[in-house]
Design a protein that fits this description.
By secondary structure, the protein is an alpha+beta fold. It has six helices and eight strands. It has one domain: Aminopeptidase (3-Layer(aba) Sandwich). α1 crosses α3. The longest helix is centred in the middle third of the chain and has 15 residues. The chain is globular, with a radius of gyration of 15 Å.
Length: 182
């Protein structure tokens, strides 16, 4: 890894990660609209300015959340997004990851690299010990990404999250700082 570009919290060979800003709304929402077919029925990122502003406010201002943009180092285009939510400090030191690639970046390995950077950042800079990913069982791409990044399947949660008008089952995947160090 080269010396980190000032724009990024961390960077790999093809992507860097940085925090969400309110100024990213125009690019983010355009990419979300272009990626609607890729995301649904699993994910519904904001596609309008007001929707983005509300989402960005949560990941920027809420201490129990952090939002990261995965950006291509060649040109800085936003390739995807990763959030850490439900951050609990104290004895638990846990966070829940959510993520999505944008259509132009899907299948290129950029999210694998970006998620790896966020995992290391969460364990080192944020001081977390455990990260979880909750994925609907039919979302093969998201499960494959969790596997590629070293997450282990820990369980099944019926009727776990309310998505697209219904309670959806989820698989629970997790990774601890010790697993990454090993």
């Amino acid at each position: 890894m080269s010396e980190t570009d000032a724009r990024y919290l961390a960077e790999g060979s093809r992507v860097g990660i940085r925090l969400f800003t309110y100024e990213d709304g125009t690019e983010f929402t355009a990419r979300a609209r272009e990626s609607k077919e890729l995301h649904q029925p699993w994910l519904f990122p904001p596609t309008s300015g007001p929707g983005y502003a509300a989402y960005a406010q949560r990941v920027i201002e809420d201490r129990t959340r952090a939002g990261f943009l995965v950006c291509e180092r060649d040109g800085g285009a936003i390739a995807g997004f990763i959030s850490v939510s439900n951050i609990v400090e104290g004895a638990f030191l846990n966070g829940t990851l959510g993520y999505g690639a944008f259509a132009h970046a899907a299948g290129r390995g950029l999210m694998s690299e970006g998620l790896g950077l966020v995992v290391r950042y969460a364990f080192c800079a944020m001081g977390l010990h455990r990260l979880e990913i909750n994925v609907q069982p039919g979302n093969a791409a998201s499960i494959a990404l969790a596997r590629r990044c070293g997450f282990r399947l820990e369980g099944f949660s019926p009727d776990f999250l309310h998505i697209d008008g219904a309670w959806r089952d989820h698989e629970r995947w997790a990774l601890t700082a010790d697993m990454v160090r090993a």
